[in-house]
Here is the input.
Amino acid sequence: MRLVLVASPTSTAKKPISTSRLNSLPDFIATPDDARGFFWLWFFGGQGGATVALGQFPQLIAKSKALFALSDEGPTAGGDNDNVGVSPLCLYPRDLSKADLDKLLNNELSVVKMVEVGPKPNYLSEQGYLNYYSFVDANKGCNPLSVRAVFDAMSTGDNVSPDAAQAALDSFKDDTSADRSVFKNALLKTRLTGYSSIGFLLFLLGPIVGSTCLDALYAGWFPEWPGGDSMPWSFLIGPGIWTVKDYW
Here is the structure.
């Protein structure tokens, strides 16, 4: 009687991982290889987003310095008792004069004409958008800080579509309230929108991107490490980052 030994087939399937405790990983992450690919996607994507976000800060600082430099520049037609009452949240160096604001808003030049005769320092201005410098050129003799404020009330940047700009200027001019509430509310809205967009990007780059990369790192390279439930504190308190090498 001959005994025949039959070798059992060796499975080449990759060991699945459990993502039930990894809140930031989607359900299709089933193997360590999936998690590694997901990690690199978010890692390099987060770096690109960080470059964009951090690149905004020098521009914000430069714009803030330029804004404060306008505080004492140019002529003004009003005094301390003739102020609009701009919200402190706008982060303007001082309040604005109603007389200065009215002088600017009484400019009869249309936005289309401002674009036509004004300087065109960038691509959008060449395509018919109103640029800040065109707006400055169209309001020579007006208070510089008021010019900046009115433009800021129309746009979060240095360009605005002519239709939007004309509609905003018309609404500011038609407002008969004593405190120029239409203009003030528009300025506050655009300023807060500019700040919140950067804040939201930083939020995405902080908790969300960081948490996703950390979970993908754990699932991709050391999924059996017992500290996965309490990262990142488990790196410091216990079992400690020095134990990760035992599960790599």
Notes: Confidence is low (pLDDT under 50) at residues 1-14. The first helix runs from residue 32 to 69. The beta strands are 130-131, 159-160.
